[in-house]
Amino acid sequence: MPVDTSEQTTIKLPILPLTDNVAFPGLIIPRIVTDKSQIMLIDDSVSEGKVFAIIAVRPKSKNGDDFDSLYNIGVSATILKMLRFPDGSIRLLLKSLDRIKIVEQLSSEPYLKAKFEKLVETRANTPEEMALVRAIYVQFKEVISLAPYLPDDMPVDSMDLNNPGSFADSIAAALNIGIEKKQMILQTTNILERLKFLQSYLSTELSVLRISNEIQSQADESIKKGQRDFVLREQMKAIKRELGEEEGAEIAELRGKLTEKSLPDDARKAGEHELDRLERMNPASAEYSVSLTYIDGILELPWIEGSEDQINIEEARQILDEDHYDLEKVKER
């Protein structure tokens, strides 16, 4: 049978809108307040020693000035620390308390105020629940190692696995999964279902992080290889300068001819490869002459070039008779 983990209550609370994030119960929330109506809300809460509600602003809404721009489920909270600054802004350190839901809208001036009920969590306490907790724990540790937005020393080992509701809230608050997904986890009071939502979102986030890190590793490796090749080439040039073996006019001329020559792709690649080898060879070596002959052969062959054939037997006979005396049998053939 499901077990209730809190008692349902009803209370009137002012609402502090939260943009770009979702607050979860039991966590510390830093907040900067600059809006005049929100500053008034904080001042009233401090003077009266009361708690207030924190509710996330819907993603498509610009602010939380009205009830339509807010979700209907949030958390109650109290102020742990407050600092006022000369520009009028207030820096807050808040402590979130319980899940709460709007049951009646009361007023919009000077700030939003509503009647709330405390939401009751239900826990199945089944093997499936504990299996999900352990799976999420392992996945989240990998996320910490891959995600740039999470500190490597995040105290995941200190999380209470025996309190799966709070465990799920802590992980959901840390993940970069978007407001709508976080709100879905916040408003799910069935702990088993909350764990299932979290595990699904966590698996997606982990897949994205793995792919992103693989792409980044490939890019880093490519950059490192390019830098290494550049350094080696520069070192080779320096060594050749010291030995008096810098690329001479002959190799520069061959490069120019290879660039200008009309060649098939395979022949051009072969010529460039051989020219690169030639550049690294000692001109006094026997292999240098062989490579040079190979490149000359590529340059001399009429790969794509051609001429129109002129087949004229009588003209050929005349040329042979003029250039070669006798040899009648040979000419006949």
Task: Provide the descriptors you would attach to this structure in a database record.
333 residues, 8 strands, alpha+beta, five-stranded mixed β-barrel, elongated, two-stranded antiparallel ribbon, 49% helix, disordered N terminus
List the helices and strands and how they pair.
Layout (H helix, E strand, L loop, with lengths): L2 E2 L5 E9 L9 E6 L2 H13 L3 E5 L16 E12 L5 E18 L5 E6 L3 E2 L3 H20 L17 H11 L4 H8 L4 H53 L5 H12 L4 H16 L5 H15 L12 H11 L4 H5 L1
Parallel strand pairs: 2-4
Antiparallel strand pairs: 1-8, 2-7, 3-6, 4-5, 5-6, 6-7
Helix pairs in contact: 2-3, 2-5, 3-5, 4-5, 6-7, 7-8
What do you see in this structure?
Strands 2-4-5-6-7 form a five-stranded mixed β-barrel. Residues 1-7 have low confidence and may be disordered. With 333 residues, the chain is an alpha+beta fold. 49% of the residues lie in helices and 18% in strands. The radius of gyration is 39 Å and the shape is elongated. It is built from ten helices and eight strands.
- Helix/strand class: alpha+beta
Elements, N to C (H/E) = EEEHEEEEEHHHHHHHHH
Q: Could you list the spans in which at least 5 consecutive residues all have pLDDT below 50?
A: 1-7
Radius of gyration, taken over Cα atoms and rounded to an integer in Å: 39 Å
Helix content: 40-55%
Query: Kindly state the mean pLDDT as a whole number?
Result: 83
The multimeric state of the shown protein is single chain
Using the alpha-carbon principal axes, give the shape. elongated
Q: Strand count, sense and closure of the main sheet?
A: 5 strands, mixed, barrel
End-to-end gap: 109 Å
Residue fraction in strands: 15-25%
Q: Counting H and I runs of at least 4 residues, what is the number of helices? A: 10
| Overall strand count | 8
The strand line-up of the biggest sheet is 2-4-5-6-7
